[in-house]
Amino acid sequence: MTLQPWLLPAWRVMSEALQSRRVHHALLLAGPKGQGKRVLADAFAAAALCSNRMPDGGACGACRSCLLVAAGSHPDLVRVTFELRDDGKPRSEITVDQLRNLCQRLSLSSQFGGLQIALIDPADAMNASAANALLKTLEEPATDTVIVLIADDPSRLPATIRSRCQRVDLRLPTSQEALEWLRGQGVDADDAALTLEASLGNPGQAAAWIEDGTLALRAECIADLTALSAHKAQASAIAERWAADRPDSRLWFASVLAREEARRLTRGERGTFGLTARAEIPKLAAWFGRANRARSLLSTPLRAELILLDLLRGWPGSERTSRRA
Length: 325
Ligand SMILES: [Zn+2]
What we know:
Largest sheet: 5 strands, parallel
Number of strands: 5
Mean pLDDT: 91
Bound molecules: zinc ion
Shape: globular
Low-confidence stretches: 320-325
Order of helices and strands: HEHHEHEHEHEHHHHHHHHH
């Protein structure tokens, strides 16, 4: 079993519980997107169902259970994730029907006589009625079932759910560990440093951005915000463009860039966006917070373009320029 090095502390906690048969009936895997929560949950599920675990606690990969897990057809492993709507697009929430089906299934005994494992991913996308249905099962857990909740943002789960789970927090690696791991994936040193800065030290996210080309959006954000500071672009045109293509990733990059800009100005350095006045520092810090709030609004019915327009109109550089004008 090869897990990313920063997952090992969490893995040991889960694996030791499994081997000593003291697994909590509900585990909450929490940590930022891209850190490897799903990889960890899959490794745990495979190990829990394996009939011949390896000395490191991992699944053997060869027994009947392991083969069924690999084929996605183990009868005692249930995955609950976004269903597809009639138009073929995934839903944006996990529904009460899905949870009712899950709870019904877990109330039956396991087919192979061992544990039954359920993975709810992402658990923080359960709507209120779905969370309620799950709560009933958590209050009266069946023996030999383990429900694993995977959440980027566990604060979105009701406190009543959180309090009934054993929380497993994934830690971020040190910057040295993260750099070494990215270099080991074939990423060159400059790109590794840049993406780690942009991902706030999350190497799994950094690698995903490099692989799928999302990192290029960061350069577009720099160009757009610089143009906004220089009054060479309209906030409305940028908002329209950002809303049409991966607004979530653009807002992430923009918020981190604002934070970095504030840090550079604090150190007396010239910023990326040509801002120089120390008076911009608190404005950039405030804008960082607003950008993060705007990002969470993207999953609501509010129109992305309006959310972005409101935010971009408040970009510190553009306010300064318009006051001078
Ligand atoms: Zn096995």
